[in-house]
């Protein structure tokens, strides 16, 4: 079960039909695109590109499982095992429907990179709290623009006041992320090395949607 859960946490790069990167999605969404025949798997190995529909990818997965099972993450069903694809290419359209970034504790911590937005120091998650810049007692909203990471000491110091009232300053202006802030992958990780062929600075800097 742990291996299955780990596989579901993998990310898949989505290309449009012109092989340009447009989004990063989770495994479940990528697999749905493949089974609906809206996308194909792209691999880049030894300088060569290969394209696979879902049928041929399942057949190739059988071979990979027999000869190189440790080189892949796997999704297992009762009848088949599928190697988690790293890249898929859309076949009929260029854009996926826009997905809103969920406003939750995990994404706020990821957006602020676990840095207290008052003292600027980085803390483990269990030593951070979520602070309403304009306190809820002053009708401060629960929005991306009014929530920041704060260490416990700074949160206590600020109390039920605004930063200016507490004589404190924000390190940076909080904004709503354009894409999931949790996806900060290390491209040295062999699982995502093939992404480098499609992601240069321009692609990674623009909004993926």
Features:
209 residues; DNA Binding (I), subunit A; 23% helix; alpha+beta; disordered C terminus; disordered N terminus; two-stranded antiparallel sheet
Structure notes:
The protein is of the alpha+beta class and 209 residues long. It has two domains: 2-97 and 182-205, no CATH class; 105-158, Orthogonal Bundle (DNA Binding (I), subunit A), CATH 1.10.30.50. The protein contains six helices and nine strands; from the N terminus they run αββαββαβββαββαα. 20% of the residues are buried.
Strand order of the largest sheet: 2-1-7-3-4
Distance between the termini: 31 Å
Topology as a string of helices (H) and strands (E): HEEHEEHEEEHEEHH
From the alpha carbons, calculate the radius of gyration and give it in angstroms.
21 Å
Largest sheet: 5 strands, mixed
Broad shape: elongated
The count of strands amounts to 9
Provide the structure class.
alpha+beta
Helical coverage, percent range: 10-25%
pLDDT < 50 runs, ≥5 residues:
1-5, 201-209
Count of helices? Answer: 6
Mean pLDDT: 83
Amount of beta strand: 15-25%
Q: Indicate how many domains the architecture comprises.
A: 2
């Amino acid at each position: 079960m742990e291996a299955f859960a780990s596989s579901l946490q993998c990310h898949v790069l989505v290309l449009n039909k012109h092989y340009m990167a447009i989004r990063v999605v989770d495994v479940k969404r990528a697999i749905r695109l493949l089974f609906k025949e809206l996308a194909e798997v792209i691999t880049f190995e030894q300088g060569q590109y290969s394209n696979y529909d879902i049928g041929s990818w399942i057949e190739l997965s059988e071979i990979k499982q027999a000869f190189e099972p440790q080189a892949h993450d796997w999704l297992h069903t009762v009848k088949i095992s599928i190697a988690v694809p790293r890249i898929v290419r859309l076949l009929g359209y260029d854009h996926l429907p826009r997905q809103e970034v969920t406003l939750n504790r995990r994404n706020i911590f990821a957006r602020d990179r676990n840095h207290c937005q008052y003292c600027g120091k980085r803390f483990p998650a269990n030593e951070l709290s979520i602070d309403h810049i304009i306190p809820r007692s002053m009708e401060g909203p629960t929005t991306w623009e009014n929530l920041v990471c704060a260490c416990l000491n700074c949160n206590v110091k600020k109390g039920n006041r605004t930063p200016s009232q507490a004589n404190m300053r924000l390190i940076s202006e909080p904004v709503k992320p354009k894409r999931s802030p949790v996806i900060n992958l290390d491209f040295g990780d062999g699982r995502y090395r093939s992404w480098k062929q499609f992601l240069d600075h321009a692609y990674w800097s623009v909004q993926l949607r």
